[in-house]
Structures are given as structure tokens and as C-alpha cells.
Design goal:
This protein is about 30% helix and about 30% strand. The protein has two domains: about 120 residues, 4'-phosphopantetheinyl transferase domain (Ribosomal Protein L22, Chain A, Alpha-Beta Complex), CATH 3.90.470; about 110 residues, Ribosomal Protein L22, Chain A (Alpha-Beta Complex), CATH 3.90.470. The protein is built from five helices and eleven strands, in the order ββααβββββαααββββ. By secondary structure, the protein is of the alpha+beta class. The termini are far apart. The chain is globular, with a radius of gyration of 18 Å. The chain has a five-stranded antiparallel β-sheet with strand order 7-11-10-9-8, with helices on one face. Strands 1-2-6-5 form a four-stranded antiparallel β-sheet. The longest helix has 26 residues.
């Protein structure tokens, strides 16, 4: 396994990792995680799932060592989903676990943690998307921006990249919302002036929440991290 990228947003107390796990890292799973691993049939989905959990264990072990001078084995950490599908952390410690968000794509697993703000993450492959799908997740105002803006795009940000940024941003925002409300993509409203570089920031509103989304372009993938500020 190679740790491909470390992410840090120190102003929000967020740390993250992206990695691609191999079958030899199954030994880092807890007993209950191993049962879940063995129950999965689709090989691609198995390794997506594994990579996200290994990334989480890496960042959690590092956080415990740095913030609490505590060492723990990865297999002593269990990552499971709550009744509303949010990742939860279980470990044999009296230390409160931080907020965890996971995402995965094409064998890459992304995990971020924060103990100060509600946050969510997402990783998506840059690709051309059908206009019907684009209309499914963008508001009319966002669609207008997308199509008006394509004539001013730079070499760093193509139309497909911009579209992927908007899609991934909405995914990460929905993950950041702590309640069990079923938030639709059209209830997440993005505001921005321009997207012309490989790193940037969008603002959002969703239900009663306000926040920001950081985006990064990594090879042929878009990574987004949403944080709620109000």
C-alpha cells in the first residue's frame, strides 16, 4: 500500500489521507470488519471499501499519537456505519473519537477527520457526464453558470473538471450535514465567482447550514472537503 496524498486544513482541524490498499492489508481489519470484507462479492467494491477504511485507520492512528500520545493497532479500530449511513469509530479507548468522513473511487480510499467542525469529503473521477444527470444535481442557476462559464475555462480546468467539481462538492456537503435529514442535491446551493485553478473554494447553503467546500484536482480526480461554519 502506498499513501498517495496527505490532506490538511489546519484552520478547521481537518486531516486526511488517500491511499490504495492491497489484500495484504486485510490483516489490519478488526474482527467485525473482517466479516464484512468476507461477505462482499464484487472485487472492485471490496477494495474501494478496504482502501477507505485503511485510510481512516492511518489518519486516526496518527491523530492519536500526535494529539494524545497514544498508540493503537489499526485492527483495534472498527469503522462501521450508523443507522443513517454515517461512518462511526469504535475503539478500546476513553478518548472521544473525532468526526470521520469517507469516500472511495477506483480503488482509492479517502478519509478525513476533524474534532472541531462537521465535515464531509468526496473523491470523483473526472469524466464527461450526460446532460440529464447534470440537470439532476444542479439548480437552474448553477446550470446557467456552468454553461456560460465553459467559454472562459483555462487549460487547468476543463468543462468536465468543473462539472465534476460541482458534483463532488454537493456530495461532500451532504455528508457534512450531521442530522438524518434526507437532503437532496437541489437543496444544496453552491455560490462561486470563478473556478480557474487546480485548488479553490466554493461556498454553500444547505437547509439551515452555511459552509465552504475546498476542492483539489489530483491527477484525473477531484477531491472536495466540505465544512459547516454555521
Amino acid at each position: 500500500m502506498e499513501i498517495m496524498l496527505k490532506l490538511e486544513l489546519p484552520q478547521h482541524g481537518i486531516t486526511g489521507f488517500i491511499c490504495s490498499a492491497k489484500e495484504s492489508h486485510v490483516k489490519q481489519l478488526s474482527t467485525s470488519e473482517l466479516i464484512s470484507w468476507n461477505s462482499k462479492v464484487n472485487r472492485r467494491k471490496k477494495f474501494d471499501w478496504l482502501s477507505a477504511r485503511i485510510s481512516a485507520k492511518i489518519v486516526l492512528c496518527e491523530w492519536l499519537k500526535q494529539e494524545h500520545s497514544t498508540n493503537i493497532l489499526p485492527k483495534e479500530i472498527t469503522i462501521y456505519n450508523s443507522s443513517i449511513g454515517k461512518p462511526q469509530i469504535e475503539w478500546p479507548l476513553i478518548i472521544d473519537a473525532p468526526i470521520l468522513s469517507l469516500s472511495h473511487k477506483d480503488g482509492l480510499g479517502l478519509a478525513i477527520i476533524s474534532n472541531t467542525v462537521y465535515s464531509g469529503c468526496d473523491i470523483e473521477k473526472v469524466k464527461n457526464r450526460h446532460p440529464i444527470f447534470t440537470r439532476y444535481f444542479l439548480t437552474p442557476e448553477e446550470l446557467e453558470f456552468l454553461y456560460l462559464y465553459r467559454d472562459t475555462l483555462t487549460s487547468q480546468v476543463s468543462f468536465d473538471v468543473l462539472e465534476t467539481i460541482l458534483w463532488s462538492a454537493k456530495e461532500s456537503v451532504i455528508k457534512s450535514i450531521p442530522s438524518n435529514n434526507n437532503v437532496s442535491f437541489l437543496e444544496v446551493v453552491l455560490t462561486f465567482e470563478e473556478v480557474k485553478s487546480k485548488m479553490g473554494e466554493l461556498k454553500f447553503s444547505a437547509l439551515e447550514h452555511l459552509g465552504k467546500v475546498k476542492y483539489f484536482i489530483f491527477n484525473s480526480y477531484v477531491i472536495t472537503i466540505a465544512t459547516i461554519i454555521k
